[in-house]
Amino acid sequence: MTEVRLDRAVVTVPDDGSPERRPRTILGPVDLVLDERRVSVVGANGSGKSTLLRLLNGLVAPTSGSVTVDGLDTVRDGGRVRRRVAFAFTDPISQLVMPTGREDVELSLRRKHRSRAERRSAADAVLNRFGLSHLADQSVYDLSGGERQLMAVAVVLATDPGLLVLDEPTTLLDRRNILRLRALLDGLPQSVVVATHDLDLAADADRTLVVDGGRIVFDGEPRAAVEHYVRLVDGS
């Protein structure tokens, strides 16, 4: 399993509403060691959960403190960290940059396989592994929301990273495609960290974090965490 450590990690941004432009803390300080196979993160919009996820692969750098992945610092060793940590965004169309899924998978394999023939063969193997071969040459704009999300996950997993981070992956999906995505995640050998509003998905983890106001307000057993979050939202 991949180990992620956050040591007093804080993220601040300039407060544009302040004449002095004083920094505003949007997350932290966070002290965590994540080494479970499945970790879920829940919280209201704007709570800081997406910022937390983006710390894990260096998309966001801590203003202070540090974040490491298997001992690699996300700032000093950014390139090596991003090869270990795959990140899937909420909207897959922002991630699928090539005309077809096959071309996207081949693009992600360009460093691992220099030969075009080798890339094509490796891409075919990835698409077959995820049951997406029949969609390989369709325009990504012709795919359904669920098919796009599955394709985006296949693309980021093509290089066999150790950790998959997903930011609200079920937001645009119907129930059938949510179940397809959950089945896919259940079968992955990688560690997974997922931020979600889907409380059933959140509860199907080994550990759950509740984020509120830029702080981790609960960290523990998933069902207990979901109950804590529901009470928090209900104000009870």
Question: What would you say this structure looks like, in words?
Answer:
- With 236 residues, the chain is of the alpha/beta class.
- The protein has one domain (4-234): P-loop containing nucleotide triphosphate hydrolases (Rossmann fold).
- 33% of the residues lie in helices and 26% in strands.
- The chain has helices at residues 49-55, 78-84, 101-108, 116-129, 145-157, 175-186, 199-203, 222-234, and strands at 4-14, 23-34, 38-42, 64-69, 72-73, 85-88, 163-167, 191-195, 207-212, 215-220.
- The strands form two sheets. A six-stranded mixed sheet has the order 6-7-8-3-9-10, with helices on both faces. The protein has a four-stranded antiparallel sheet with strand order 2-1-4-5.
- Helix 3 packs across helix 4 (116-129) and helix 3 packs parallel to helix 5.
- The longest helix has 14 residues, at 116-129.
- It is globular.
- It starts with a strand and ends with a helix.
- 40% of the residues are buried.
- The model has no long low-confidence stretch (mean pLDDT 92).
- Keywords: ATP-binding, Nucleotide-binding, Transport.
Layout: helices, strands, pairs:
Elements: E1 4-14, E2 23-34, E3 38-42, H1 49-55, E4 64-69, E5 72-73, H2 78-84, E6 85-88, H3 101-108, H4 116-129, H5 145-157, E7 163-167, H6 175-186, E8 191-195, H7 199-203, E9 207-212, E10 215-220, H8 222-234
Helix pairs in contact: 3-4, 3-5, 5-6
Output the strand order for the largest sheet: 6-7-8-3-9-10
Any idea of the CATH class?
Alpha Beta
What is the name of the CATH superfamily?
A: P-loop containing nucleotide triphosphate hydrolases
- Compute the CA-based radius of gyration: 18 Å
CATH topology: Rossmann fold
Roughly what fraction of the amino acids lie in strands? Answer: 25-35%
Derived from helix and strand composition plus strand pairing, the structural class reads alpha/beta
Number of strands: 10
Number of domains: 1
General form: globular
Q: What percentage of residues falls in helices of 4 or more residues?
A: 25-40%
- What would CATH call the architecture? 3-Layer(aba) Sandwich
GO molecular function: ATP binding; ATP hydrolysis activity; ATPase-coupled transmembrane transporter activity
Protein name: Cobalt ABC transporter ATP-binding protein
Family: Belongs to the ABC transporter superfamily.
Organism: Terrabacter aerolatus
